[in-house]
Design brief:
It is built from eight helices and four strands; from the N terminus they run ααβααβαβαβαα. It has a four-stranded antiparallel beta sheet, with helices on both faces. It is α+β, with helices and mostly antiparallel strands. It has one domain: 3-Layer(aba) Sandwich (NADH Oxidase). Bound molecules: flavin mononucleotide. The site of flavin mononucleotide has 9 residues, from strand 3.
Length: about 200
């Protein structure tokens, strides 16, 4: 049974949780999360920092096997996401609260805050032995309709679950699951004590 680990090939020391997080696509569809586990994920999002402590987000969790999980699997995902995501245990539908002013700067700030809540939730999932995979390849209008979303932007869906082995997966899926993880070079991501050129 092969369950890949893909720790980041880093150029400096990193906390294990960060080093070992990655985004698999092969999940065990029989694995269900307990109500307590889901609550822990919700609390992780709830306790994220945000600008002026506005907490401009809402997370809708959909559990494997539920009617709404099924509907989002069928109509709310695009492309290859439709092939793998329905095997996960939980969808976290990440919503950003629309601001009254609706100015670009407000929207950017709201999305930034939602990103922090999302990542904090993903790291909590990692600490619980689960894996997560963000999906921007979604159909926001369908998700809005299915979940009766009002006054929020549907930003992304996060598939969360227990990693499963490669053996039963399609060739296409195995190829993606075992592909090397890459990043831009360090110098294009951060610099120290010098202005940008
Ligand atoms: C906002 C966002 C949207 C993403 N959308 C998708 C997606 O629709 N489908 C997919 O397979 N991966 C998606 N990804 C996953 C990225 O491709 C992945 O995080 C990136 O390649 C880095 O790989 P790693 O998470 O394993 O380090 C998304 C990631 C983020 C943060």
């Amino acid at each position: 049974m092969t369950i890949p680990n893909k720790p980041a090939d880093t150029s400096a020391q990193l906390a294990d949780l960060i080093r070992n997080r990655w985004s698999p696509r092969i999940f065990d569809p029989t694995h269900l999360l307990s109500a307590e586990q889901i609550q822990s994920l919700g609390e992780a999002a709830r306790w994220a920092p945000s600008s002026s402590n506005q907490q401009p987000w809402h997370v809708v969790f959909l559990t494997q096997g539920s009617k709404l999980f099924q509907e989002i699997s069928e109509k709310g995902l695009t492309g290859f996401n439709q092939a793998w995501a329905p095997s996960c245990s939980l969808y976290a539908v990440m919503l950003a609260r629309q601001t009254e002013k609706g100015k670009a700067r407000d929207q950017a700030g709201t999305y930034f805050d939602l990103g922090l809540a999302s990542m904090q939730m993903v790291m909590q999932a990692e600490a619980m032995g689960l894996k997560s995979h963000f999906m921007g390849g979604i159909v926001p209008l369908e998700i809005e309709k299915t979940l009766n979303v009002k006054d929020h932007w549907v930003v992304c869906v996060i598939a969360i679950g227990k990693q499963a082995s490669l053996e039963a997966a399609s060739e296409d899926l195995i190829a993606r699951e075992t592909a090397e993880r890459t990043r831009l070079p360090s110098e294009s991501v951060y610099s120290v004590d010098k202005p940008l050129s």
